[in-house]
Amino acid sequence: MAEAFVILTGEIQAKSPAISFMNSNKGKPLLVADEYTFKLNKATTTTKYWICTINGRAAKVHTDLTNLLMKTAGNHSHLPEKEKIEVREVREKIKQRAINETTPIPRIYDEERAKAMLSTTAIAILPSEREMNSGINKARRAIAPIIPTTQLFDIPESYSKTLNKNEFLITDKTVTRRQRILLFSTSEQLKMLFAAETIFMDGTFSTCPSMFDQVYTIHAIKYDQ
Fold first, then answer.
1. What is the pLDDT of residues 41-87, one digit of tens each?
2. Sequence-separated (6 or more) residues with CB below 8 Å from residue 173
3. Would you say residue 5 lies in a domain?
4. What distances in angstroms separate CA 149 from CA 41, 138, 155, 180, 191, one per listed residue?
5. HSE (CB half, 13 Å, CA atoms) of 178?
6. Domain assignment of residue 164, yes or no
7. CB burial of residue 84 (10 Å; 0-12, 13-18, 19+)
8. N or C: which end of the chain has fewer CB within 10 A?
9. Is residue 12 part of a domain?
């Protein structure tokens, strides 16, 4: 009795890589696939063409206009960029928090670095807070309210409350048509002020915004400070 053997032949289909997106240091879109980064080379009415950020002629990725993967082509001529991607992700989180929050940048940097659980190599190449500060401050200033030139302006809510969302702007009063008084303090500071036996007052003109006459501060002593 003869036995029949059937052999099936065909190409083994490679698994499509999972893709994600992030921004470059200059705010340009980057595609991430298999621990490699790609930058947008061009776009047509149907397709986006992405090329490797290190060797643009080697590996390529095509997506549709909604960023769904269509195809990949070519091979990389360099090692994966796992650590660089980790650093980019941390930098982007720090930048977005700096834009959306009023939290001091050094505090944001420390918190995001601690949460990231970076590898030893990624920690070594992560820029310091001092190195990143200028660029992050620039991004924060870009979305900050325009400095007014008259006393007729609205104060955004984020500038009228503390980081804990408590009231900070306690008085906003127009005395006359051209005289406006703004008083900033927290309730805790007022309690400290009213309980102090000695207070100090100081007025300054040189650092006062041009549309106002004076910045006046009141200080209370606590713990000899």
1. 999 999 999 999 887 667 899 999 999 999 898 888 888 888 999 99
2. 180, 181
3. no
4. 43, 22, 14, 14, 34
5. 4
6. yes
7. middle
8. N
9. no
- Which tokens is 219 given? 């200080």
CA pair distance 79, 105, nearest whole angstrom? 33
Number of neighbouring beta carbons within 10 Å of residue 93: 17
C-alpha to C-alpha distance for 98 and 101, rounded to whole angstroms:
5
The whole model's pTM is what?
Answer: 0.60
DSSP class of 221 = -
Question: Residues near 89 by Cβ (< 8 Å), separated by ≥ 6?
Answer: 22, 116
CATH code (residue 36): 2.20.25.240
CB atoms within 10 A of CB 33: 18
Residue 211, H or E segment: none
Which residue has 């007025």 as its token pair?
Answer: 203
φ and ψ at residue 53, rounded to 5 degrees: -70, -20
The residues, ordered by sequence, that sit 6+ positions from 27 with a Cβ below 8 Å of its Cβ are none
Total domains in the fold of the chain: 3
